[in-house]
Amino acid sequence: MGNLVAIVGRPNVGKSTLFNRLTGTRQAIVNEEAGVTRDRLYGKAFWNGVEFSVVDTGGYATNSDDIFEEEIRKQVLIAIEEADVIVFVVDVITGVTDYDEGVAELLRRTNKPVLVLVNKVDNHDRIPEASYFYSMGLEDLFPISSINGAGTGEFLDRLVEVFPKENTPEEDVDLPRFTIIGRPNAGKSSILNAFIGEERNIVTPISGTTRDSIYTRYNKFGHDFYLVDTAGVRKKNRVHEDLEFYSVMRAIRAIENADVCMLMIDATRGFEGQDQKIFQLVQRNKKGIVVLVNKWDLIDKDHTTTKKFEEQIRSAMAPFTDFPIVFTSALTKQRIHKAIEKSIEVYNNRNLKITTSQLNEVMLAEIEKNPPPSIKGKFIRIKYVTQLPTQSPAFAFFCNLPQYVKEPYKRFLENKIREHWNFNGLQVQIFMRKK
Ligand code: GDP
Ligand code: GDP
């Protein structure tokens, strides 16, 4: 958990090709399940049983006022600050450029692991040229070809070796972990202060040994949980915070370390594209979600305002619509406890395990009332259903012809599950399996 890799390097060295190679197949599966669109910004990858996240800096919009190289420089600095491992891609065909030297200079100053990939080494003849890149003063260097895959195995072996060790709190590892995420200025640090405030006697910050994320324990009003990466929220970085890349890196780190994410949006701005992107990051990580519409005190309200807001958010995230939305004010503290109660509810829903006998009793009856439509004269018989032992809710329906069960019927099954049990705040995955 929380192995975050940032790919940096100048344009055209092959960052995006590498990103696709690392995340390709698995990404496709993840998206098919979650129904979210693929992009090159963020993906999950696997090597030797280790899961990690990859962010390609080249995919991000940058500030148009800045000169180009300055922007990339910023992205490198953010990557150094926020990622666990930095992968620096250079191009064997062009050789070492001034720009590469500049990036290398920044990277030599960090204590974080840096792996240099000399890309486009498509054949053995180019291997000697790859060694010229040692002149940049970075030790961990791998000649690879992102296009044909040569050398990527050695690189990945090394990558999973250099990930930092876990720093989950030693005690009480089973406590729920919540995090507050969202765009700059939504009110995250304000609500955090409202939650934990100055009451230091009940707040125990546990700082990580190998990472800079911090778990703050909240233990009052009968609740006991960790707020994750609150340091990240509090430690502002005004230089970078208008960069999308920066917000995304921050959000990813917090999401990966949490069970439930409170996505805070600014009511005065509405639910915008970037809010939607952060929401999708939560979905891809299969974490619980609670949406907080903050600064509610600033909104002129009539009896339709809440409903309109809710509809706007849910329709943007459809077909996933079963999640809590809480209208808060960090300023007046309106409903901030409801935000916590909802997060706890979602956490409990995430851990809900329904027995197979209960599931079959309820779901087989529903299926009998509304069987899957027959296709080309073939009848689909669903024989039984079981909940999978996964971290987020997933169900396998066993039947004679799984390939004939289409999306609308799967959605029907999902909705029936949601009617009978509480999976508010969570995506529910439905799999059809051959029996
Ligand atoms: P980015 O701008 O750094 O993301 O670079 P891209 O991934 O878009 O690649 C730039 C160009 O280099 C494309 O034409 C790729 O097909 C090509 N390219 C990427 N990796 C390799 C490689 O390993 N070998 C060769 N020969 N070309 C590559
Ligand atoms: P962050 O960047 O998400 O951590 O946002 P901050 O907590 O720093 O808040 C940004 C600005 O919005 C500050 O000026 C806060 O005082 C203000 N703010 C935060 N929450 C509320 C709220 O619920 N109502 C109002 N009126 N202002 C708020």
UniProtKB/TrEMBL annotation:
Official protein name in the record: GTPase Der
Domain of life: Bacteria
Role played: GTPase that plays an essential role in the late steps of ribosome biogenesis.
Binding site for GTP 1: 9-16, 56-60, 119-122
Keywords from the named record: GTP-binding, Hydrolase, Nucleotide-binding, Repeat, Ribosome biogenesis
Family per record: Belongs to the TRAFAC class TrmE-Era-EngA-EngB-Septin-like GTPase superfamily. EngA (Der) GTPase family.
Matches recorded under Pfam families: KH_dom-like, MMR_HSR1
MF (Gene Ontology): hydrolase activity
Subunit structure: Associates with the 50S ribosomal subunit.
Binding of GTP 2, residues: 182-189, 229-233, 294-297
EngA-type G domain boundaries: 3-167, 176-351
NCBIfam families the UniProt entry points to: GTPase_EngA, small_GTP
CDD domains per UniProt: EngA1 (cd01894), EngA2 (cd01895)
Gene (UniProt): der
Signal peptide limits: none
